[in-house]
What we know:
Largest sheet of chain B: 4 strands, mixed
Shape of chain B: globular
Number of domains of chain B: 1
CATH architecture of the domain at 1-57 and 102-172 in chain A: 2-Layer Sandwich
CATH class of the domain at 1-57 and 102-172 in chain A: Alpha Beta
Shape of chain A: elongated
Radius of gyration of chain B: 25 Å
Oligomer: heterodimer
Distance between the termini of chain A: 56 Å
Strand content of chain A: 25-35%
Distance between the termini of chain B: 59 Å
Helix content of chain B: 25-40%
CATH topology of chain B: Translation Initiation Factor IF3
CATH superfamily of chain B: Hypothetical protein apc22750. Chain B
Structural class of chain B: alpha+beta
Number of helices of chain A: 6
Amino acid sequence: MDEDVLPEAAQRRLGSGAWSSGLSTADFAACVAMGLEPVGLVQGFCVMRWGWYGSGNPYMSPWSPYASAGGRGYSEVFRCPHGYGMGMTGGDHRSWGQNYEQSWVEDAWHQGFGSAYRRLVEEAAEVGAHGVIGVVDTARHLTDMSVTEFHMVGTAVVVEGAEHPKGTPPWTTYLAGQRLAKLIEAGFMPVSLAVAMSSVRVWAYCMTDYLMEGRNFTWGGYGAQEVDQVIRARMAVRQIARKHVRDQLGGDSLHGARMDTYGWSLAEGDEVVECTLRGTRVRRFKGFDPVAPPTPTVRLT
Amino acid sequence: MTDDAAGGPDVRAELRRAVAAPASPGGGKGVTSDLSIDEALLLHAIGWEPVDLVCGVSVASVPGGVWSWGAGEIAVASEAQGMAFEGAVRRISEECGRVGAHGVVGVHVEATVHRHHIDVELVGTAVRPVGGPKAGHTFVSDLSGRDFSLLRQAGWTPVGLAHGASFVYAPRRSAGTSIRQTGANVELTNYTQAMYAAREAAMERMQQTAIVMHGAGIVEVKVTEGPMPFAGHAIGFSAWGTTVRLDGEGHRYVRPRMVLPLDDAVVTFEAQSLRG
Lengths: 301, 276
């Protein structure tokens, strides 16, 4: 898709004089009360196909994924404690395993999400908006599991009586209505969405395989045990997502963070675990005195 | 600051000012938080602030064969659930300590029982008193920022997440009992008894963890119970909540004020009533 150019139909619609908005009535009323005027419902789309092959993907390597993760970032190796190499285990014994960050998956996800986001912001800039509020983003599979649609929708707004700062892209936020008003009253201004995705692949070694498949008794004891390799992968995927978001903040704060994790087991202890972290990047623009301690109330209805 | 007629800040003027002269990015380490703006403001009102989003995860294995028919408690599965909870709490506490916070509030607890492993995942926001010293001990609490601030106002403090779990076999009915109960409306006492057995063991374990933490009690207890989806004859019961104790001399009575909201939510007329 040609960057920096809106489709002709979109330009015609946005310039028609009437505006549309995705705000609820309550949010609309609250926004108008604080001087935010809707100018249009803006959207961004990107449809991505997920391939097996890509830069950094170990499947491209002639070597086993065990040999080199290929990507960048987190990687950790786990070695068999059962004396492999000294004739104490069979040939099918999973003598070592690896956790590694699938940076090519993260790059592809960020490309899809980033493109949809950029198109949303371009539409908002086209209508002369100061910002986009009440953004909702979705990612869903289309037709088959290897095609994903990223969709973002929000309401472009102008600040009544304010000039547009030159050369500054519109700010964006998931917030709208009273929540946005409270944020501004508290001395914070939204800057942009801050969103990151992380992906970690677990190639199980023997212990993980046994423990995740209920075969604890095969090697060393019968009882509950923590599965170290999987725990480290699941902790790492969250830490990586936080690091990616923190890299976007540049000293600002993340408000209203939402962390979602999802994973799927493959076989014999192998699994992929992914995490998305999203929120609104906010910047303090004034000092703020703490509010008075709240007064507990009992409703008479 | 310009004030509006109601005495509060004029948000329109604030907004215009912020847009006209955008602030420069903060120089320090930014805060990440999953608290709502209300919760963040309430925390500030009692002198606390969010620091960072933290998490803790644990996966404990359950050996094969434990879910087959038996009698009494499935001790290995109960042990696995306890181990997973402890591991996740330990890891989120460690993250909390690393970011220099005093505790974690609003912890979302997700515990999933699979046939061969039990997963526990905790995510919450690490908090600390504004300008407070480094904490010697960190607490983990699933209370919201709102509840945390109310608890502090009342003179109490959270000390940790208490938890307990138990899995119990619902014993097989005898052939005679099974035949007698076929087609009848009767209580399946083997299931009822298994539920009670699991409940007592889990609640006792949860209270024991609270005692170990030197807590006075547990608030906001959540329970999950029921047969396992992969083994209908095995009943599981889990309970968790925030252990609290008095902070200082005693309970401070929070005197609520009565308010009469003007947004009348009561439906006084239903069109259907016209039909008699």
